[in-house]
Design brief:
single chain, 377 residues, Aspartate Aminotransferase, domain 1, 3-stranded antiparallel sheet, 17 strands, 36% helix
Length: 377
């Protein structure tokens, strides 16, 4: 019997294992030289001056919102079609979440919908690069620049993607990455915040490390002694340890290989499913070069559950990404109601994420394609 095919998985090789073993045998397990090296490499990949690693992608969002000064008097505009963390990290800081509808073709935040929601209370507009396809950053940046808000790009799906020839990470005021195992590269758990703004970078770095101030020029009581450190505003411990940064460095060296492999998987799906009736395949706009994290198909005619169950029963461990965030009971209890973002709700009602990862073999992928076709016969 053929084994199950997961919807996503990490790609670990002997060089990754060797890098981690070397770190384990060194003098550093927590914050050491590999952290700085990995942060520099991430900044280069993103095309920015600063990267701050974090313990996971949700921590990166929390750090980024905190660095942006998000607080109880602020509103944060978030796309409805995303994982709950994009909204929850801002809500944890006391902000009011305002949900924007998404584009029909990409599933990304619709700049027109966001524009209708931005007001004087808006501190941040958060864009999510759904499935790896970059958001319309130029339209969003025009909007936020005019309103005085900051643009945050939740790029959990899209490291190494480009938009109009520019790398994701350099498009927004501040950008977050996730390095969860199913993402485009991994540090097991991990994330990063990247920016070209020195003030945002310093605020992010400080929040990531308990809010500690070690620069004597900034301390209130520097005369206390060379050991002295102060907390001027509260932060949390969101540091990513040296041993996991060693894995990240090794993975990042293969980021082009991963992107090429995922593009090959994407193209094979597009070719194999192009003529299937009742199916909408993912869009790719001509000014983007995505690093594909998901392959989201949309099943028309109310047959999503039927197709999902058929694929699962036949060993294809598909997923659905995502329930509209305001459908979660936490947000329902705050008064958010279904029907607010009809495009996102329709997208969710039809969406299935097919297996997508760099090491997905041709024979397994052809099996997935065949089963999708059979499910819709």
């Amino acid at each position: 019997m053929m084994g199950p095919i997961p919807y996503g998985r990490q790609s670990i090789d002997d060089e990754d294992v060797a890098a981690v073993v070397e770190a384990l045998r060194s003098d550093w397990l927590t914050t050491g030289p590999r952290v700085a090296e990995f942060e520099a490499a991430i900044a280069t990949t993103a095309g920015v001056s600063d990267a701050i690693t974090t313990s996971n992608g949700t921590a990166a969002l929390h750090v980024a919102y905190a660095a942006a000064g998000v607080g109880p008097i602020d509103e944060v505009v978030v796309p409805a079609l995303t994982f709950v963390a994009t909204a929850a990290a801002a809500a944890q800081l006391g902000a009011t979440i305002v949900f924007a509808d998404v584009e029909e073709d990409t599933g990304n935040i619709d700049p027109r919908a966001a524009a209708a929601l931005v007001n004087d209370a808006t501190r941040v507009v958060a864009a999510v690069d759904y499935a790896g396809h970059p958001s319309d950053a130029d339209a969003l940046k025009t909007l936020t620049s005019a309103s005085g808000a900051l643009l945050l790009e939740d790029a959990a799906h899209s490291i190494a993607s480009t938009y109009r020839g520019r790398p994701v990470g350099s498009l927004a005021d501040i950008t977050t990455f996730s390095f969860f195992p199913t993402k485009n590269m991994t540090t097991a758990e991990g994330g990063a915040v990247v920016t070209d703004d020195p003030a945002l970078a310093e605020a992010a770095r400080r929040f990531r490390n308990h809010g500690l101030v070690r620069d004597r020029a900034l301390q209130r009581r520097p005369e206390e002694g060379p050991w002295h450190q102060e907390v001027h505003s509260l932060g949390l411990n969101y540091r990513l340890p040296d041993v996991l940064c060693a894995l990240g460095l090794s993975q990042l060296r293969r980021i082009v290989e991963f992107k090429t492999a995922r593009a090959r998987v994407f193209d094979r799906y597009m070719d194999g499913l192009a003529d299937v009736e009742g199916l909408t395949l993912p869009a790719r706009r001509p000014d983007t070069d995505p690093m594909w994290h998901l392959f989201p198909i949309r099943v028309q005619g109310g047959r999503r559950r039927e197709v999902f169950d058929f694929l699962r029963a036949n060993g294809v461990l598909v997923q659905v990404n995502y329930i509209p965030v305001y459908w979660h009971p936490y947000f329902e209890d705050l008064g958010y109601r279904r029907g607010m973002c009809p495009v996102a709700e329709r997208y969710y009602a039809e969406e299935i994420s097919l297996p997508m990862y760099a090491s997905l073999g041709e024979s397994d992928q052809l099996r997935v394609i065949d089963l999708v076709r059979r499910a819709l016969e």
